[in-house]
Amino acid sequence: MYLESKRFTGAGVEVVPGARDRHHSNLEKVAFTFWAVCDSIDPESWHGEVMFGSKVLIKTETAENEAMAGRLAERALEARVVVVFGDPGS
């Protein structure tokens, strides 16, 4: 008689080739956030930042006001995503 022993992860997933056991992480609730950062008051100047969690990923060029700086941050992230994930053939 042959006895087979099965192994399971802590989440109850059987350990077999191709099994997927979800790894829960503090990063699951982290998002991209867009910031307008004041550089100077007179003359007024701002720059935009894109953050992922607590890390600044992108800093934009200088803008005249906070609304423009925020839009620059949005466009900068969009451009970076297209470069990284875009279809090179399109």
Protein described:
There is one protein chain. Helices cover 22% and strands 31% of the residues. The mean pLDDT is 90. The protein has a 3-stranded antiparallel beta sheet, with helices on one face. The protein has one helix at 66-85; strands at residues 32-41, 44-52, 55-63. It has 1 helix and 3 strands, in the order βββα. β1 and β2 form a beta hairpin. The radius of gyration is 23 Å and the shape is elongated. With 90 residues, it is α+β, with helices and mostly antiparallel strands. It starts with 31 loop residues before the first strand and ends in a 5-residue tail after the last helix.
How do the strands and helices of this protein lay out in sequence?
Blueprint: E1 32-41, E2 44-52, E3 55-63, H1 66-85
Antiparallel strand pairs: 1-2, 2-3
In summary, what is this structure?
With 90 residues, the chain is of the alpha+beta class. The chain has one helix at 66-85, and strands at residues 32-41, 44-52, 55-63.
Structural class: alpha+beta
Helix content: 10-25%
- If you average the pLDDT, what whole number results? 90
**Can you list the strand order of the major beta sheet?**
1-2-3
Sheet having the most strands: 3 strands, antiparallel
Weakly predicted, low-confidence segments? none
Number of strands: 3
What general form does the structure show? elongated
Rg, nearest Å: 23 Å
**How are helices and strands ordered from N to C?**
EEEH
Number of helices: 1
| Percent in strands | 25-35%
Distance from first to last alpha carbon? 61 Å
